[in-house]
Design a protein that fits this description.
about 200 residues; eight-stranded mixed β-sheet; about 25% helix
């Protein structure tokens, strides 16, 4: 399976609390809900297309707990049946139960277990949100594709997907589009270590 990451971001790179003011108030964050004003039917259709390619979901502990609380209450197609029915793998060293079925806890060497999942036949193993897990898997060279959905807003504070110390990674833009309300959707394939050059030098 191919490992894909879907992440909602502000223009200044913040991923924290896209869905509501009280979604994630860690570190005193008070500017949640910044993604909601830009939702429209075009993006919902695009997101449904992506989810339709998934054969399994991969989530970090915090994202899993939030999803497991909310998604079982959502039954409307296409998102409800897909999110609730897909196999889910949660990376956690603290969870002892994962009852949003079907769910499996990945403990121990998570990158090695994710690499094993990727070797299974199938289409996409999809990583949604879960920024800290995403950062570690990007550093391990396991993420194949990034779908970054950028809202036209600056919030000025909050956790960033690519903080200082992010693993250097080359990317190739394979698709880009915008929605009527202004979301910029960039899809990148990872290409290994970055290339470097000198401006103006002969190549």
């Amino acid at each position: 399976m191919k490992l894909t990451l879907t992440q909602f971001l502000t223009l200044d790179g913040v991923y924290q609390g896209p869905g509501s003011p009280d979604e994630d108030t860690g570190d005193g964050f008070t500017r949640g809900g910044w993604f909601v004003p830009y939702l429209d039917g075009a993006f919902e259709q695009l997101a449904a297309t992506w989810l339709g390619r998934a054969d399994a979901l991969l989530l970090g502990r915090r994202t899993y707990v939030n999803f497991a609380r909310d998604w079982p209450k959502m039954t409307d197609p296409p998102f409800g049946p897909l999110m609730n029915g897909l196999p889910k793998y949660v990376a956690s060293h603290t969870l002892t139960e994962a009852d949003w079925n079907p769910s499996t806890i990945l403990a121990g060497d998570v990158p090695a277990q994710v690499a094993d999942l990727k070797r299974r036949p199938g289409r996409e193993l999809q990583l949604h949100g879960s920024a800290r897990l995403s950062q570690s898997l990007l550093a391990a060279g396991l993420i194949d594709e990034l779908r970054l959905v950028i809202a036209p807003v600056l919030v000025g504070t909050g956790r960033r997907l690519f903080p200082a110390g992010t693993a250097p990674t080359g990317l190739r833009l394979v698709r880009h589009e915008t929605t009527p309300r202004g979301l910029a959707v960039h899809t990148y394939e990872t290409t290994g270590p970055p290339e470097y050059g000198t401006y103006g030098a002969d190549t």
